[in-house]
Write a structure and sequence with these properties.
mainly alpha, two-stranded antiparallel sheet, 2 helices, 2 strands, rod-shaped
């Protein structure tokens, strides 16, 4: 599951996603887990939301 190919040309060649996409996807998953453990409407949670964007 996931994004294996971004696009295909009319000649049948496939364009693969850049590798930085995987790196940021993993980092985003970790930050989202941290946000979920924080208390709602807390300062710590708001700061993590700023890091996510």
């Amino acid at each position: 599951m996931g994004l294996e190919k971004i696009a295909s040309t009319s000649e049948g060649e496939f364009i693969h996603p850049p590798k930085f996409f995987r790196k940021y996807k993993e980092k985003l998953a970790i930050l989202q887990q941290k946000v979920e453990t924080r208390k709602k409407k807390s300062r710590a949670r708001k700061l993590l939301f700023k890091k996510n964007s």
